Amino acid sequence: MLSPVEFFLKHPLLSPIRVAGLSLITRALARRNMVIAYEGDEAYRKPARDLIRRVRQETPMVLVDDEAYNIYALAARTARIPGDLAELGVFKGGSARLICEVKGDRELHLFDTFAGLPEVGKSDPEFGKGGFASSFEKVQSYLSSFANVSYHVGLFPETANGLEHLRFSFVHLDVDLYSSTLSGLTWFYPRLNRGAVLVSHDYVNALGVRQAFEEFFADKPECLLELSGTQVACVKL
After folding, report:
1. pTM of this structure
2. Is 199 in contact with 177 (CB distance < 8 Å)?
3. What angle do CA 113, 115, 119 make, to 5 degrees?
4. What's the number of CA atoms in the CB half-sphere (13 Å) around residue 55?
5. Fewest CB within 10 A of the end CB: N or C in the chain?
């Protein structure tokens, strides 16, 4: 029998509430130039934590600190894997900024409608059409100091036409919906080089995202790795 505190902290049905609460806490801390850190990681992760704090002050990120750190660290760890980087679902450029800081000379491809989410399906009860709209011009300006960043504006995968020859070392998906996630997996997976990392937001708290991953990887050799927060990742074999 779980106590009320244990029930809140551990029950899977309350995961979205816990994530939302932690997101509010991290944003409140960011306004006070503070971040959540864990004992023993301060010296090792302080540069990344400081960067995440700065980015959060500059532009909204729908990520808790651990999720932001995972993107930063995984993109950095793929430096020796051949291939470009990509992000599908850019919003206001916060996670793209983290990737830019560690991508080196690799090309980063950013895909987004910038008009918000497309039509949602029955697997996506948490979201509505037009959600997470942003400004392409503002994102482009925000990332203007970084070289080798390409923008592909419109509905994916049509915006990837002509890019079929590319190979990738790191891909970040943050598209919220079943159909968009499945499209991202279908297009990027065969173009991941061996050792490349694909990571997605909302696997834990968005039914459609989780459904797309479980269906797509049902016959694939890779294991799905649940990360801190709501993320999932895989390493291409």
Report:
1. 0.82
2. no
3. 85
4. 27
5. N
